[in-house]
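Per reviewer request, we include the raw input and output of the structure prediction for the construct analysed in the revised manuscript.
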Amino acid sequence: MFQTLYSHLKYTSLLCFFLLLPLNVLADTRTGSNETIEQLINKAREISLWQDTEWLNLLHYNKEFSAYLSQVDDDRFFYADDGKTNPQSELIETIKNLYIATEDDNQQTQCRYIARSEWLEGRLDIDKTSLPAVKCSEYHEWRQLTHADSVSMIFPAYHLNSPSSMFGHT
């Protein structure tokens, strides 16, 4: 029964997609107004939100002298071209990307970076209804597979490149 319902929904969704295709081609993929986005960016700049310890921790930034450097080496982790070394531009690009709808919900900022998104929503009082509606199916599927009520974090070393320390202490 579930399979039949799933197939029906899949074909109905495809039909709606093709019927609405001409409208979608003309529509902007950004769900929030440019004014709203600029207001959020200005608010973030006013309170220097990019310097907040939580933001720096979410993106694994270390401050050495007067420069920042993220421990993450994968460029896909950052929206800004200089995101690895510039927490301010990464914050601004993340705010902009919150309002960009994608065809695959799992690639939308709210699903790719759940902690980042929720933190920004809380700190900037972002109205969730102004953001693209997402389902984050991959995240929910993963959550169902874990069967966990809580998580314990073990912090044996400052360096992520020390697996022997990580596994030895756990």
